Amino acid sequence: SQKITNEALIQALSEARVDGASAGLVFAPELSTFMGVDATKSGLIPTLTDLYDSPSDWSYRTRGRGVEELKNVTITILAASTKDWLRSSIPADAVGGGFTSRIIFICRERPSKPILFPELSPDIGQLKSNLIGDLNIIREMKGPILISHTARALAEEWYKRELYKTRDPKLEGYFARKHDTMFKVAMILSVSEGEDRVVTDRHIEKALFMLEENEYGLEGLVASVVANPIGGDTEKILDIIKRAGTIKHSELLRKCWRFASADVVSQMVKTLVESKEIKSELEKDNRTLIYTRI
């Protein structure tokens, strides 16, 4: 996907209408290319925020095409980025608000498997074929999805426990919508198993497990998006230490001299130590300072 204007996105959804519904999938190998630096001013972010809730009727007035009307909107975006580029893609003032609370961030520090030359094994080929077959069945499914009594009770119990937990203010939006996301994931799990269209307690449990597993590192990711220059550099230092596991002070300076002096690095390290992100200690020679992630 290349950069798109707000009007072009709306027009594409309007032209993609099938059976009275406007649906679309956006695949963006780099989010910043799709969004552009002026995504808020151009109206793209407000539009995506509006369309997330799948309105049954939605209209937008354009200069050249008059009023564009969308019905039963469904839009999905699958996009990739790095921490640094994510900061330029999403304005800091959008974090914690309506837009980022609707994003499911999947953050990994490193690739899960060091595979240089991926090969399509017979098992993976069969899995791909089965997946395509299942998706073709799912796309034809119609009708309401029901929730069992036990699943409803489980979801209500979880919701009451979670409602009053204290969160990072920047993550409040995500957790305020977590129950919506949970039900969406549970519905996907249900239709992936059969055509009865019933969400059970097992689907609720698995959906919550998947979301909680994915929340690891979410706070650090969001913090890096809104970081000021000093905070951003501190985040870089923390990332270096995390990747190394344990690192000597001199080695850390060699990796940081391009963006910070020795005094500034020491101040940032002090901040990380006092916030209990890392620990600092001397080696047996009582001279070499080392840092270790906690």
TrEMBL record:
Protein name as catalogued: Uncharacterized protein
Species in which this protein is naturally found: marine sediment metagenome
Lineage, uppermost ranks: unclassified sequences, metagenomes, ecological metagenomes
